[in-house]
Specification:
183 residues, alpha+beta, Pnp Oxidase, Chain A, eight-stranded antiparallel beta sheet, globular
Amino acid sequence: MAKTYPELDDALTHFIQAQSVFFVATAPLAAEGHVNLSPKGLDTFRILGPKTVAYLDIFGSGVETIAHLRENGRIVIMFCAFQGATKILRLHGHGRVIEPHQPGFGDLQVHFAAQEGTRAIIVVELTRISDSCGYGVPLLKLEAERPTLPAWCRKRGTEGLKIYRQEKNRQSIDGLPGVAEQE
């Protein structure tokens, strides 16, 4: 039976911390715009308070989440139990993007281990917390984190990532503004 929660309690916090992957979904306001759904891992999720969470946004081929949040702030984060008791947990909220050159980034960065290619920190103020059964979610076992993304970022280096950001992360596939110019 699905249930809603007023905030993240100890049991939900423990469930979140036990998951190795989460999914982030956003959408533009335009009906013809593309909905985005992205899997995340690499120990990049943190609970900052009973109604506030954050995750590291690491370089990728697109910038949809950042663009959608800049336009309308809507976001949902989903965790699925792939081992143990069944559960799907959805965290709906309003997100904001904090890039490394912006005020407050350093204060948030201390909550995370250093990750190659960190592009931003996404902070989400939760407006709805709910779970559902997850009976249809398969049992899966984590073999290991993939080393590919950190290696890709290291290979490009600081200047290469700056060029990539300028070329590939300036706007979403729907033409919405993505990462900001660094000051």
